[in-house]
């Protein structure tokens, strides 16, 4: 592979833009003095370094939504955010707009471009099919695809970065420690003694240990990654830009990019990254549809058929919980030699973590002419250059003429509709009005897990918006004229029934909700933070989907009780179970979500009968900052969930500074944190101790 002419890229910037970033005035001494950590009343030690793909990618999706979109929606001009100016213009603005947002982005790149945590894109099904049709080797075809994508977004071919490991599907777990010394040698100089390290343009030194990877395909893991990819791809490709000045353009029509000075993507660099993400998604979806579904009739792996024609009553075709991968032995560009189902259950977590991203991606790929809410730039993406358009028979309102096709819209719709119908048929108990946590392929379970039931509501909300042609992505709460599809109506029915179940069966007199409910036995007695997170997420989603105030009021009640009962003012963190404060990525993501929802949807407004202090904007924002400071960043360099950080959050590389922490905060640079060679910028489990 070393002889191949193609190079691959890293994060969202070219080398030149990296230099522009680090060339700005950098007052090293002032930054360190302003951000010197205060003596903390708690310790937040790491409890485990196992990287959980599903939890991390889920959490970082919530971090993304709680980042730039949140502060911009509150009126902040994003141009004033500067990673060099810590806690400016306010600590909340910096925490959300810089840390939460950029941690989210970099973690995605670690998984899908740097770590090797999965199967290499060279072996992706679309890449292999195109290579075979053109009589080329897969690596040659992929190199040409990257050049084609670069041309489509106005990105210089020669500036595509090196030694990326693009994945088309990701494994469930791994060890995020680097296996060799990270190459921090100088690639290029900036001003104020800053420099761009080699590893920012060359990913060769950023691999994880393949022997420590859990080589299992789990829908929550590759679905959670898909969610991150879909959200960022939608953001990056949500407009056009000028080639000569890189100025972002909203776009007026799908043919705008036919102008030689207009290209796809909101900028050249973002466009390149977005195009690569879509290339990965496209291959992933084809692999999932063609290889990873399980037939309850045949008790084995099968290909899914046309989603609009799928009838679960004739036998379930669903995504099983775990599939073990035996690799082909190629350490450079590994592929699966064989697949074995090791757990054939349908697990609700897996299903909603596939429904959500495939709904997001549906909003990007939607080519139905009756949908007037699709961005012109999205239409331009799928006009056969650089991605194929959908088969015309798959775009009408007649399901009977739909055909199997590998284009992004059609393959995603097949996966989306299989998952939606299976959530309904396999997990929803019509008599009880709630979603069960498991289905063994033959019969439904009897336990409702509050966290997952709540997030299923949110995923159904995004599904309803996507299938009805309403905006998703960062605009997922905006009003618009919808298409009123049968699937959308059913989603609303499911949402309201599950939300009513939360209110009627899971809420206690205290305002808190219980961990779960067993049909025939009743509600659990245990109260957990995760249950509150799921309930607030689900009830708020029900409110946004139906505009029924009773769901907002219920969400406010649960949030208020959570704040008043579970918030530990001394530790500045929520109790997770009883007096414990043990956090994994799912919990961290849920906390990020409810704080965002409290700010955007639940905070006190004129007309609210009750005006609790917990729902005053100042209180919510203080919780956001305190939680992030304590649990995510931690009190010192060895503590906190965020294991390391990249230049995007202010830790620039400076000549003669070997501290591994040039911005003086509580998060080390990648090469300096937690291990012999450092650790990736991802989330690790912690326990808060007073």
UniProtKB/TrEMBL annotation:
Signal peptide: 1-25
PROSITE patterns recorded: PROKAR_LIPOPROTEIN
SUPFAM superfamilies noted in UniProt: Six-hairpin glycosidases
InterPro entries named in the record: 6-hairpin_glycosidase_sf
The protein, known as: Extracellular membrane-anchored protein
Keyword Signal: yes
GO biological process: carbohydrate metabolic process
Keywords: Signal
Species of provenance: Domibacillus aminovorans
């Amino acid at each position: 592979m070393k002889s191949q002419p193609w190079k691959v890229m890293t994060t969202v910037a070219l080398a030149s833009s990296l230099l522009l970033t680090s060339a700005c005035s950098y007052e090293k001494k002032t930054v360190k003095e302003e951000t010197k950590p205060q003596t903390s009343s708690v310790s937040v030690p790491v409890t485990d370094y196992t990287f959980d793909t599903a939890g991390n990618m889920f959490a970082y999706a919530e971090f993304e939504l709680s980042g730039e979109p949140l502060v911009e929606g509150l009126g902040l001009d994003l141009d004033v955010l500067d990673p060099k100016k810590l806690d400016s213009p306010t600590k909340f603005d910096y925490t959300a707009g810089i840390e939460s947002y950029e941690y989210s982005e970099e973690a995605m790149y670690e998984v899908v471009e740097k770590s090797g945590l999965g199967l290499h894109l060279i072996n992706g099904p679309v890449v292999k099919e195109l290579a075979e049709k053109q009589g080329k080797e897969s690596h040659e075809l992929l190199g040409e695809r990257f050049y084609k994508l670069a041309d489509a977004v106005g990105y210089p071919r020669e500036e595509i970065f090196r030694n990326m490991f693009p994945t088309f599907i990701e494994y469930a777990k791994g060890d995020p420690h680097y296996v060799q010394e990270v190459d921090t040698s100088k690639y290029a100089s900036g001003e104020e003694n800053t420099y761009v390290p080699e590893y920012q343009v060359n990913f060769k030194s950023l691999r994880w240990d393949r022997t420590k990877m859990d080589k299992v395909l789990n829908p929550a893991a590759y679905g959670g990654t898909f969610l991150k990819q879909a959200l960022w791809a939608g953001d990056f490709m949500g407009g056009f830009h000028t080639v000569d000045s890189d100025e972002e353009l909203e776009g007026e029509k799908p043919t705008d990019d036919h102008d030689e000075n207009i290209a796809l993507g909101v900028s050249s660099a973002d466009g390149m990254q977005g195009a690569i993400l879509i290339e990965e998604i496209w291959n992933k979806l084809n692999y999932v549809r063609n290889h990873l579904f399980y037939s309850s009739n045949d008790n084995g792996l099968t290909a899914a058929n046309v989603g609009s024609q799928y009838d679960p009553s004739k036998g379930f075709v669903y995504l099983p919980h775990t599939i073990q991968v035996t690799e082909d032995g190629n350490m450079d560009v590994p592929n699966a030699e064989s697949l074995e189902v090791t757990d054939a259950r349908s697990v609700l977590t897996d299903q909603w973590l596939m429904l959500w991203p495939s709904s997001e991606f549906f909003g990007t790929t939607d080519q139905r002419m009756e949908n007037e809410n699709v961005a012109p730039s999205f239409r331009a993406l799928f006009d056969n250059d650089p991605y194929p358009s959908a088969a015309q028979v798959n775009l009408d309102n007649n399901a009977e003429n739909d055909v199997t096709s590998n284009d992004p819209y059609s393959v995603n719709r097949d996966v989306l509709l299989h998952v939606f119908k299976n959530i309904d048929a396999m997990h929803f108990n019509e008599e009880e009005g709630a979603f069960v946590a498991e289905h063994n392929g033959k019969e439904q379970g009897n336990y409702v897990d509050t966290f997952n039931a709540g997030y299923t509501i949110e995923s159904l909300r995004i599904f309803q918006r996507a299938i009805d042609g309403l905006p998703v992505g960062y605009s997922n709460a905006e009003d618009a004229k919808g298409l009123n599809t049968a699937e959308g109506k059913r989603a609303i029915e499911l949402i309201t029934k599950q939300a009513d179940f939360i209110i009627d069966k899971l809420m206690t007199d205290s305002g808190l909700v219980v961990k779960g409910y067993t049909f025939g036995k009743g509600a659990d007695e245990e109260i957990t933070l995760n249950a509150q997170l799921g309930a607030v997420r689900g009830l708020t989603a029900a409110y946004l989907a139906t505009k029924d105030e009773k769901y907002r009021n219920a969400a406010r009640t649960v949030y208020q009780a959570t704040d008043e009962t579970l918030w530990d003012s001394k530790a500045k963190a929520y109790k997770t179970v009883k007096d414990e404060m043990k956090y994994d990525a799912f919990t961290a993501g849920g906390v990020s979500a409810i704080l965002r929802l409290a700010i955007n949807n639940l905070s006190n407004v004129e007309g609210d009968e009750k005006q609790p202090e917990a729902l005053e904007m100042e209180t919510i924002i203080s919780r956001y900052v305190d939680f992030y400071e304590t649990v995510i960043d931690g009190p010192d360099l060895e503590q906190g969930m965020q294991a390391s950080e990249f230049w995007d959050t202010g830790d620039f590389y400076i000549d003669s500074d070997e501290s591994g922490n040039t911005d003086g905060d509580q998060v080390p640079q990648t090469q300096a944190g937690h291990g012999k060679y450092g650790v990736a910028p991802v989330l690790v489990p912690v326990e808060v101790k007073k």
